[in-house]
Amino acid sequence: MQRLAFSITTEMAQAQKQMQTQIDGLKTEISQKNAQISEFQDTFEEICLSDKTSPAQACIINSSDKNNLKLYVANSAKALVPPEIQTFDAQIRDGKRILCELTVTKNAQNYTAAPKNTTKNFNSDVLSAGARVYFVIPEPEVQKK
Length: 145
Fold this sequence. Notes:
Elements: H1 2-49, E1 58-62, E2 69-73, E3 87-94, E4 97-107, E5 110-115, E6 132-136
């Protein structure tokens, strides 16, 4: 019985050591992925703020589904959207010229966009990853006294 108990204890110790090695490897991988995510966020932030005279509030990060564009929202723009607003308008512009109008949907911290009705001249290439998006937030109604 002592040999059996020793054998079981040894096997458990080896299994625990293997699991700890796997856990350490996963922790390292998570740390690397978090650093990569941080770099992506920095890059998207730079894209949004690249035009100093007219910084964008967001940029497209995934355009594989042109009717469900994934957006990155700049840190400075997150407070612009009142919590009670779930959908609002936005635009992709070239200077003052509007290239595309969008409807943005906010779901918790995730933002997606879809193009509004477009003209037959519409060029869907403007809906590519990296395109800067400008929010059109309605002004809050002034309370009457």
